[in-house]
Write a structure and sequence with these properties.
alpha+beta; Beta-Lactamase; Arc Repressor Mutant, subunit A; 3 domains; 12 strands
Length: about 375
């Protein structure tokens, strides 16, 4: 009964922090005490660009916090992997790689171990194609590794933290800086559509209208947006139906769809729900549930993490190596950073080459850049 009273009291404090963000540091301290840990943070990161920021924290040394976002975020295996997990799913290091492998990484040796930390329980609160907001509770040697009890305790709190964050809008994963949605859409060179739950087009920008007229990638029928490729069209219609239920249901399904054409050119449709928070207020029509951006793959901006693994059937290990090759460089440097042998890295890299039809590391860099998401600024 004491534990139930503690949990109830803590949940009340969490919602108080939604109204008064100054309370978050104290709430994170209480969360550490309930779950069992020495530090906790509310943060947002982008898995593709390897950037991020801490919004509220407890128990984190400022110097190490600065070092993390300045240097070590790109070496953190959780940064790459966390976007693949469901919203509110509690994970730890063991869900990504073994602790033996983790202790061989540069991230552990140079950033985790010096602080006496050993593990962390994390959960995504909201996410886009490559970005996410999350909460983590970090454990030191005294607390030991994340166990079933810690996961269960974290699981009790995470739904309430997520609601409080959304209510308080303390983290804005999707930057919406334009004065109106229409201005934003018409200012993009890619085809941009706002649709309702049935795929009916509420708004299309100039580029989108040209695409519909060409009818080689997308088309309109009865006022509804359709992909010319049957498989891609079914995926889009499923996403539109999911978007009505908001970010939570939508995020777990992913929001990037590869589009094929008869000419063999790659196109990508990036779909973003409009049914929660600031995005809904930016939408002038209550019928709109999703924004769809359709563009040809082109070498101009880095955003790839959602569509490339689907397009080429890459495994999580292959994705990690691909990202490391793009971000860090050659095989020896990647092996050192990931705590793997050069032979293992070469094996994964060979599989990536085979699946993507490339032969050089430079080709991989170009491939990653070609699947750019124009919604990421």
């Amino acid at each position: 009964m004491d534990e139930a009273i503690k949990a109830s009291s803590l949940i009340g404090d969490i919602y108080d922090a939604a109204l008064d963000p100054r309370r978050w540091s104290c709430v994170l301290e209480r969360i550490c005490g309930f779950v069992g840990g020495v530090a906790s943070t509310l943060y947002s990161e982008d898995s593709a660009t390897r950037t991020g920021r801490s919004h509220y924290a407890f128990g984190v040394d400022r110097r190490y916090g600065w070092l993390y976002y300045d240097r070590y975020i790109k070496h953190n295996p959780l940064t790459t992997a966390q976007v693949f997990f469901d919203i509110e799913e509690v994970i730890s290091v063991a869900d990504i790689l073994s602790h033996e492998e983790f202790r061989e990484t540069l991230f552990y040796k140079e950033w985790v171990r010096p602080q006496g930390w050993v593990d962390a329980a994390s959960a995504v609160l909201e996410k886009s194609a490559t970005g996410y907001a999350a909460i983590s509770v970090i454990r030191d040697e005294r607390h030991g590794l994340i166990d079933d009890e810690a996961r269960a305790r974290m699981g009790v709190l995470v739904p309430h933290v997520r609601r409080a964050v959304l209510i308080g809008q303390v983290i804005d994963v999707h930057r919406t800086e334009a004065s109106t949605l229409a201005d934003t859409l018409d200012g993009l060179g890619a085809g941009m559509f706002v649709v309702d739950v049935t795929g009916r087009i509420v708004h299309a920008n100039c580029s989108g209208k040209v695409m519909i007229g060409d009818a080689t990638v997308v088309r309109a029928s009865g006022g509804r947006l359709l992909a010319c490729d049957a498989g891609a069209n079914q995926a889009l219609q499923n996403l539109f139906a999911s978007a009505e239920r908001g970010d939570a249901a939508f995020g777990s399904k992913g929001i990037a769809v590869p589009l094929a054409t008869r000419s063999g050119e790659d196109h990508v449709a990036h779909v973003m729900p409009l049914t929660s928070g600031m995005r809904r207020r930016k939408t002038r029509s209550a019928a709109a549930v999703a924004a769809v951006c359709v563009r040809k793959a082109a070498f101009d901006a880095p955003c790839w993490l959602e569509v490339i693994p689907k397009r080429y059937g890459l495994t999580p290990s292959e994705v990690r190596v691909l990202l490391a090759i793009v971000e860090i460089g050659g095989v020896p440097e990647v092996a050192r950073a990931m705590g793997l042998s050069e032979t293992t890295v070469k094996t994964h890299l060979r599989h990536v080459f085979e699946k993507t039809g490339t032969t050089r590391q430079a080709d991989l860099v170009k491939l990653v850049a070609s699947f750019a998401n124009p919604l990421v600024g």
